[in-house]
Fold this protein.
Amino acid sequence: MALSTRRPMRSLDAPARTDPELLAAVAAGQLDALGVLYDRHHIALRRFLARATGDAEDVDDLLHTTFLEAAKIADRHDGRANARPWLIGIAVQHLKRRRTALGRFFEVLASFGGTRSAAVDPRATLSARSDLEHALARLSEAKRITFLLAEAEELSCAEIAALLEVPIGTVWTRLHAARRELGALLAEEREP
Amino acid sequence: MNARSSAGTCARSFEAEAVRDGRIVGDARASFLRHAETCTVCGRADAALAALATLARAPDDGPRDELHARRERLRLLAAFERSLISAPVATPSRRPAIMGACALVATVAIAILGASSLRGPAAVATPASAERAPPGAASAEIEPSDAPVWSRQLDAKRETITLAAGTLAIRVTHARPRPRLVVQLPDGELEDIGTTFTVHVEGGRTTRVAVSEGSVVLRLRGQAPRAIDAGDAWESDAAPSAVASADAPVFAPTLAPPVASSPRAAPASRSTPREAPDDRSRAAQAEDAAYLHILALQRAGDEQGTKAAARAYLARFPAGFRRVEVEGLSR
């Protein structure tokens, strides 16, 4: 393997690589490309995960898992110019698996008698900085994720349905319910 | 027909959400949009939905922990690097080239200062200049400083750099496959995991290791192995604090304040610093802040600003442990 000549850690002269170019480089095993991809998208992904989970303790690990998974399947990127929806999709898959595992855990807890399974994740203790985050934390995770995918990430309902593997009617229903509840909660938050 | 009633409702208000979600398209959508221009109820409903969406998309104004973000970034890169190394890659065509290149490497005179305890390959003295193995062989760029005494040896599975005295700044390229990189020290060894780092040896003892990217494992004789991550530094008189990490659950020290090390000081890893810890802590934080400022300018694409900030860093911290990297950014 050729030894690279001395150069700055991050070149300031070369034009920025596109997301598909970066993912192709990651698929070829280039670490710096993964670093650039992380720099480009980690803030948005972190914000999505923080809001989606309502639990800040999970966010670092979910973010790490999402990017690591993205690096491993980089050759399967759909080629879109902006990789963020694709990364969000990976994050959502991890959230689903996490929710399934949590659901089993809560069922076990409930089986010990006297414990009612909560429809809302009882670990929602994120220190929210805004009224919206306070309100989001009070939604069910399914409605919260659907709302964030639609309004924050601007995915179409068809894309969300495919991502969550639910019928599009379910997406419409969850969105409608999320908006209604958020509207009421935000009005409540703003009352003096 | 305007369906408004005196009660302030409109039978078409549900269409605001339907349009937004793509349930109503084409002529029906256009019809509603025309209607909403004259209907206050529907106009309000549409505006409320838009306001909620705007709120959801608003950027996060909270403070950002840059150091935490960098640590997480490098944790990710280290994990990916490990996954690449553990994945078997068959490149039989490279092996004859590597073995052939090895034959060219070992021609330098052997000199070891107090190196009776050195293990592994023989130490070789080299002049103080940037050393590169023949192309196609090694995977590390090495920049010596303060006239170190060091050598390099490569075989198919392992590249060994032997440092007897002085300071080396080492940057490992990330093309794969590459041999395992180990730096032999008078009192132990340092293993690289896809990294940029600096190591200093003085008086037959390793006195400082600072990691800019990736991570290393430092194994000193008589002491437990230490993993040192990017942004962290270890000094022989410091008292590193262990921080749990998902990938390195046992040894992951946080950024420790720099401690003045004396060649005669006992190699105690847990001794109390001799100088005021608050002053050193503040100096270390100031250096971190200056370094992060340079990186922020670089990420923003401000080339001139990056160079100016790098020169300011070098003027303020002439012995800063990121000096080698910052010198590169100042040019």
Residues 1-6, 105-130, 132-137, 238-277 of chain B have pLDDT under 50 and may be disordered. Helices of chain B lie at 14-20, 26-38, 40-57, 66-86, 94-105, 277-299, 303-316, 323-330.
